[in-house]
Amino acid sequence: MKFYFFVFALSIFNTIYAQQNATIFSENKSNGATLYAVNKGFCPSTVVLDLNLNNMVFSMGEQKVFVIPAGSEKMLLGDIGPADPKKRFSFSYKYQSVIGDATLKGYDTAYIYDLPFAKGQKFKLTQGYNGKQTHQNQNALDFTMAEHNLVVAARDGIVMKVVDNNSESCPNETCLKFNNVITIYHSDGTFADYAHIQYNGSKVRPGDKVQKGQVIAYSGNTGWSSGPHLHFAVFFLQNNHPTSIETRFRIGDGKQVTMLTEKEFYSKDY
Fold it and tell me: Closest Cα to residue 144, out of 229, 231, 219?
């Protein structure tokens, strides 16, 4: 019996994280094929498999969603073979790939973050959650911070993305493309963005494991910015759509925990 094999791979690319998405490939067998997944990124990715089977069966039955661990080079998804070898059979497949574990239903809402700047420093929160300037419907924070201040990780994680090759800035959205940013992946599936960092100001690179309090960059004034500051936001990805979330921080000597309030000054003595 002649074996007909067709493949069409469809990936949904997020403009920031496309390079982290997993891919699927197949290897032919005498009577079918085996499907594998590859994830060269630094955090899990999720693939949704869409099989079109003609007189064929998939060893994983009706399973369509697979979480591919970071660094996977050849993860077995399953085998495809004929239901009745005496009859004509064929198959094709396509898939969607999104960064992160799409099966997660939530994140660690109890986690307490450290302030994203060095011990002994004090800065004003000029724009808070859902701020009227540029944070409408966004849970993000802006700390007024002169250039070349130390930016530190607010939480342990793995560096996903580093952009620090831009030097331009302006106070409108046209300069969004010039944002220098570091994105870090956390163990509960959330991500944090540290934006507007200095030109060539990153102290880390993609794939680095960072600890809370570790210096990751120098602050700057790049991208969509009306003055030097640090933009910090934590978000959770569901179906490749980022949703920014509110976070609580240790302030002062570290014993007090609070949600930060716009226009207030916050010090870090821990």
Answer: 229
